[in-house]
Amino acid sequence: MTAMAAIGLMSGTSMDGIDAALLTSDGEAVARPGPALSVPYDDAMKQRLRAVLGGVGEVAAVAEAITRAHAKVVSKLLQENNITNEEIDIIGFHGHTILHRPEDRRTWQIGDGALLARLTGIDVVDDFRSADVAAGGQGAPLAPLYHAALAGGLERPLAVLNIGGVANLTWIGEGGELLAFDTGPGNALIDDWVRRQGRGEMDADGALAAAGAVDGAGLAELLGNPYFDRPPPKSLDRDDFRLPDNPPWSAADGAATLTAFTARAVARAGARLPAAPRQWLVCGGGRRNPTLMAALAEALAAPVRGVEAVGWRGDHLEAEAFAYLAVRSRRGLPLSLPGTTGVAEPITGGRMHPAVPTTKNGGSGEPPF
Questions:
Q1: 134 near 369, Cβ under 8 Å?
Q2: Is the pTM of this model over 0.85?
């Protein structure tokens, strides 16, 4: 198959901003990664996103706002790298998840693919998860096929752990078998706790957690959540786990306890894998937290490294994945498998939005902001 130039766009559950990455691929092999960038959301946009979680409030207005923000990021990526929109075949637009209830066959990623195609002058694929959920799958995680494409020469069994707001893993067996599922909270509870304490938006470098002590009883209570007893594949909404109302924690002890919770939840997940991974490769924002990485190494008793150790781009891996999945969707290839989402059989997905005629590198003439 002929390779396509695709831009993947990701707005994750941590609500920190938009990642964009250019990838050349035929939807099976990965030819090469291209330029990438991350653009943070300002505080106002973060507040607007939080206000519509669960599918409430001014969803349509926020969906339009983040679509225009994504268009601006695409324009920035192209302009900074002297690329015209005519050189890009497809955009994979994940949107932002505000509701994920696969048990009710509902998942909702806001963002207007048709508007993005009009603003950028590039064909867009969006709505990656709905077909899987409608067919009885979990709709998540969707990056495992990309992880498998990247991991061809690595020693297996291998686990790729993505720590965003929610944490999920991809297990790749010696014969290429795949198992994937959400392990539990990633950064979401830690971020929520830090925000509640008036200490900012996140525990930068894990410094607050490093200064605290883990509350063993509180940790045991958190690990008693019935989610951990469910067999994989399985997935979570960002807010399926919530902070205790009035825990007896100092700011530092709370951060330490919640950091330990994320790590121990991953260890619980590891116990469900068909064979122990020879190594764990970590992507997403959580890999930048040395306290969390140390807690993972202790809980897993196995090598734990950032994906940069094998030449992958940890900040842009998910954006690359949605570029890859956009090409697969365009070609009718599966986006999910029984082992990755629990769907009964491999299934494709995504919804195509053709671009309107445009001028080079300028979108449709309608400003993307």
A1: no
A2: yes
